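#onboarding

Welcome to the new folks! Below is a worked example of what a typical request in this channel looks like: someone posts a single protein sequence, and someone else replies with the predicted structure as tokens. Don't worry about understanding the tokens yet, we'll cover that in week two.

Example request:
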Amino acid sequence: MELPYTLADRYRLVSHLAKGGMSDVYLAVDVALGRRVAVKLLPKSHSEDESFVRRFRREAQSAANLNHPNIVGIYDWGEAEGSYFMVMELVEGDCLRDLITEGRPLRPRRAVEVTRQVVMALATAHRLGVIHRDVKPGNIMLTNDGTVKVADFGIARAWNHSTDLTRTGSIIGTATYFSPEQAQGRSADRRSDIYSLGVVLYEMLVGRPPFQGETPMAVAYQHVSTDVPPPSSHNPEVPPELDAIVLRALAKDPDSRYQDTDPFLHDLEAWLRGESIASDAPARPAPVIVPEQVVVRQPVAVSRGSGGSGRSAGRVLPQPYYPPMEERRPVPLPFVVGVFVLVAALAGLSWVVWSLLQAPEPEPGVVMVAIPDVVGRWETDAFSSIQESGLLVRVVRRNSQEMPEGRVIATDPAAGERVESRTEVEVVVSSGLERFAIPLVIGQTQGTAESLILAQGFTVGQIEFVEDSGWQVGTVFDQDPLPGPLLPSGTPIDLMVATGPGLLVVPDVAGLPGSEALSVLAQSGLRWAETSELSEDVPAGQVIRTEPGAGGGITATEQVVVVISQGPELLVVPDVAGLAGSEALSVLAQSGLRWTERSEISDDVPVGQVIRTEPGAGGGVAASDQVVVVISQGPGLLVVPDLVGLPSVEAYANLTDLGLTWVEVVEASDTVVAGGVIRTEPGAGEQVDIGGEVVVVISGGSEGVTTTDTTVPETAPPDQDTDTTTG
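Example response:
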């Protein structure tokens, strides 16, 4: 494919970002919304596999409903030119695969922080019933601001029947992160994702995964049968508590692992806070002795892509970013202790001084305490901290999209504020995602059922068409889940729709723009033909109906007729320019048109006649709209300027520039110097028709004789030598 290339008449593919075993990723521009996106293009061979297409649609739809800061957003998906594609959020940053590909371990705290954010992403997906199935460094991105983004949720399920463990290439990378149950061909669940993430955490801590081999089968066998050595056996900087977390996540028996993301997240956060971990730490083996060697390291170029093994140019990590273990020199213990004591003493002294300056003077006998910071902690832990501070707790529960159920969202007063002991503190605890009632759609047509599901905040899951169900074609005869317990918004609801032998069901596309409706029909495997007709109710370009209608059955060789609106019938505006207003309005009425009048000054069209219509003659207008008839007011009126006291030459220029006619009269005046304007008739501020005459009375001095002279030289304005009769 030659770039740039426009996909589906909307996405302009600009450059190639990465290549994986199952897809190519491109940098693209969404021309409809004007934003940069990443487009994952799947090979054309998959479009011929109907089972893959069904799985891809279902999993893409589920992934598109995952909304979390640590999940790469899915904007769109579809099929174009025989290939399926997915439009994703463009992540500006680095792929985790490229940060650890040189075998250099990350610092333990950094590795745990990355894992913590991945766990939060998995928690959101698991609550909505979406299992990732392919957690690996190639699907984990780190943005430039440090945020972790997880990609490709659930998509592995779409092609899990198109690959097998005997294939080489991209699948060997996936086998590295298989859970034992996946390696044995059993179904994956949330504990499988936890195992795969444990492998990723192990690789970040050690610099390589726990198991490696020449073939995918060799790697998969080790996942099933070989014990995982503790990370500290390869990296002495890994403490026993972190060993225990990693090995619990990597337990071969799913029942021995973390059963959910919540306890996994709890242990990671407890370790980051320096708290003890409930899990028993394994015995620490003797460290691996590595002979001294000279290591020459070059800066590592990291790609900005997502997906498989290809690497494209990206920013260069500075050498100190994650320094290798061999280059770290031990710091003398007395120096470390001394610095720590000094910093702690200075911090304590600063806090005391600040508190004395900021805190109000307490009343005698009143004990003031600071609200502890419990945001993000489990509610029981938070309650204990607040009560140990001598405060009372009042619990308020609130839905939250970001905070897991049971964790503290906020406190009132906020953390750090000083209040009297025994003050009641409002603790806002997350009750998880808001939950809604599942609608009963059995007996509805497919289009109506989908509308009801979406209106309630759920998503349409897998749609299965069943022949000879005994129900009318296009009718929903079963759904999963059925109405019962409340479920979070975004939960997919699967439908079973009745169809006849060899029939496809026509989807409901009425009211959609024509191009969008045709795309829906194409995704349903239907052929179509377009026709159009006038409509007073449906805007031009939108679908009025289909034939057969929504829910009807049609064979794969037949066509669906899509009737697209031309808009309302238009009436032609007659030419009434130059007619008298009353006559023009009579002509419009005879043409079935409605009108409204507007007047306008005109030098060319006599008063009361039509200057023009809007729309103009020959234009089309709906019967419900109005034609604007512009009627002439005749020439406009001009305001006489104030010329009194001006010399005649300047007065002449001012008057004639406005389009008025100059008429000069000379009078004797004892107050106005000869040649100056005494007055005008009409006076300043009065209105005169365009081209109308203005009498300008000029002073002839104290002995001047009053004379009227309407003759003004054409070549020059009048001056004091103008030929006038004097006494």
